[in-house]
Design brief:
Length: about 450
Amino acid sequence: MQMNKNRIFRLNREEPGKGDYVLYWMQASQSYYDNHALYHAIERANELQLPLVVLFCIMPESSTDNFRHYDFLIRGLYETRDAIEGTGIKFILKWGAIQESVLELSKNAALVISDASPLPHMVDLRRSIAQELNIQYLQVDSNSIVPFIIASDKEESGIYSISRKIMSQLGDFLDLPNEPPKIDNIWTEDKKIESSFTLEEAHEKLKDYKYENNCIVSDYFTPGYSAGMRRMEEFFSTGKLESYHMDGNDPAREGKSLLSPYLHFGQISPVRVCMSALKYSGGTGCQAFIKELAVRKGLAENFVFFNDNYFNIRSLPHWALTTLNEHISDKREYIYTLEQLERGETHDPYWNAAQKEMTLTGYMHGYMRAYWGKRVIEWSLTPKDAYDRLIYLNDKYQLDGHDANGYAGIAGCFGKHDREWFEKPVLGSVRSMDSSELGWNFDLDKYVKRVNSLKKQSAGK
Ligand SMILES: Cc1cc2nc3c(=O)[nH]c(=O)nc-3n(C[C@H](O)[C@H](O)[C@H](O)COP(=O)(O)OP(=O)(O)OC[C@H]3O[C@@H](n4cnc5c(N)ncnc54)[C@H](O)[C@@H]3O)c2cc1C
């Protein structure tokens, strides 16, 4: 199967130069398998009769990045590195400023390729690198089913408008071959390029790097491509895909795929998941699942790509900001400090359970995420406070945090991509969600019991 060429985006107008290798700067798609950017880099290296170098950069930067995330990332990369090196491609790890590392290695490259991220600081980084390069620089989108650049040329207001655009193109982007292409020109060590550290050394080094120690490594998710694919197979083989439209939202039933950490780190491909789901079933549950994976995820990518305020309250539509501000002086029944929230010490056992699920495992059930977010609005002094706290907690504890889906999910709690509802205190006409509404549909006590049986499995590996 041929890759859809619309995944490829030219980041500058240059042509390939004379060089010793093709350089693939890996960032968003961290797998050897099912990685369009890597596959294209191999094909271009073969065309130019050159070997291929894959560069990965580690730059600890964000205040909410922590060892939970880096542990998952690096242990996932062990498998990727081994597969890459096993086929004669050079894998290089650099520590520190990304742009400098990419430009340094580009000096002897004929062509540079990177994968794609819709997050504005990542888009800017690629633009900035492109300005410095006098050889061809391409971006290949491997993390979206329909690439976010193709899906729409403007910020979409909601799910309906983007759904049509994505679903009408979906078939054109189910474009993964069964096997990776083979590299013709094997890397030979006489072309000396050194890593800053091995991945194992970087893993050790990151343990001590400015992290808050109350965010423990999650033993609930084994990182890496193989573990992600096993989880996908299990989701299919246990009937959860087929019953996704009925059970997916029920926190007590565990009907979700739990694939989000793997998708977030690009350890597995959403295209592969979609192709496999369609092959496996194609029924109503499968269609509902694909809607989430292709359309909801696509809407989130569209949001962060077009909205520079994706991480703060200014991202909201006018009506939502207005109604929240009109209700800013409403009496809050409960006000909690960030520390109380973080420790899951509120009066609400369902909210506490959701918070506990996230802090212990690095994952919160999708339906509970919306409830979790809405309640924090009610329990904070201002909507802005609530927004900032949600971003902080989500990015700190969720293994899939720092993701377009999370930023869109949080904005969604405040009315983004939604319409106005009946006016209520505090939330105004933003849709509310209280525990009695949750309880009508689901056995929440069962959810609480399940979460309370979770063990603190790993105390900071
Ligand atoms: C307040 C809040 C915070 C959230 N934070 C994150 C986050 O940090 N990272 C994250 O990936 N998602 C986040 N989401 C979106 C969604 O809840 C998760 O993607 C989903 O629950 C992940 O679990 P899963 O893989 O088992 O999902 P499944 O239901 O099995 O879905 C499979 C995949 O479809 C996509 N998907 C499903 N639901 C959504 C959605 N609502 N929006 C966008 N994509 C979706 C995801 O890629 C997901 O992995 C958040 C939602 C809310 C309301």
